[in-house]
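Researcher: Please translate sequence to C-alpha cells.
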Amino acid sequence: MSVIALVSGKSSGVTCSALALTLSSPKPSLLVDADPAGGTIRTGYLSGEGSAAVGLHRLAAADRQGTLAREFSQHFVSLDRDHTGQRLLLPGLTDPTQAPSLSRTWGQISRLLSVMDQTGYDVLIDAGRIVTESETRLSTSRYPTPLLHRADAVLVVVRTTQASITAAAPAIRVLREELANHGTGADALALLLIEEGSFTSSQVQQYLQTPVVGMLAWDPDSADVLTHGAYKRMPRRLTSSARTAHGTINELVTKRRVQLHPAGVATVAGRAS
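Model: Translation complete:
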C-alpha cells in the first residue's frame, strides 16, 4: 500500500484531489484532513454529518494522556454511504489556532499511519498549502511536516495555468530541500496536475524540474460535489482520471520502496507468492 501526501504552494485544489484519489483507490483507503488552515471535508463533502467530538483536533490531548494509539481509529468516520470501512476519513482541525497544539503529536500520528499502510490501506494526506519558517525549511510548529518526512511520495497539486505553475515554484524549492535533508529523499517529490489550463504536462515538468506522476481532469461539476455535498452522483470524468493516476503513483511508490528497502520489499513479494 502507500502513504501519499498532497500539498500546494497556493490554493490549487488539494482537498478535491485528495478526495478523488481516496474515493477511487483500488484498495481500502484512509484520508487524513491535515490542512493546518482547518478541515473542510466534514462540513463540505459530508455536509456536517458526524460528531465534532472526533477528529484530528482531539488527538493532541490523547497524546498527552498516553492514549493516542488506543484512540486513534476511534476518530475515523466513513466517507461512503454504506459505511463499509473501505473509505475512511480522519477529520481535520475545526479552527486553525489548533494547529500548534499538534506540533509534538505529528510524529506519533505518522507512525500510526504507517501501521494503517501495513494493514492494507492506501493513506492519503491533505496537507493543504505549505507553511514555511525559512526559505529552505517547512514550519515544525504550524505545519504537519513529520507526515511529509515519512510519506512514500509528496505530490504538489498544480493547475496547468500560468498562475498556479508560478506559485508552485518556490514551494517546490522548499520541499525539495526539506525532503532531501529531513525526509526520505528529494525523489519523493512529484507533481499531480489538474488540467485546467493550456500548458502540457511536459511543459510544466520542464519548468518546475519535477516529474509529473498523474493528471486529473478539470471537472467543475465533480469538484462541486466534492466541495459541497455528500453522496450526490458524481460525473465519472474526474474519478476515471483519478483511477488512472493511482497506477502511476503506485509505480513511483514501489520504485522508491525497492530503492530504500530492497530486502523488505523482496520479503513481502516472496510471502505474497
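Researcher: Any highlights?
Model: Strands lie at 3-8, 29-33, 77-78, 87-90, 122-129, 153-159, 189-195, 212-217.
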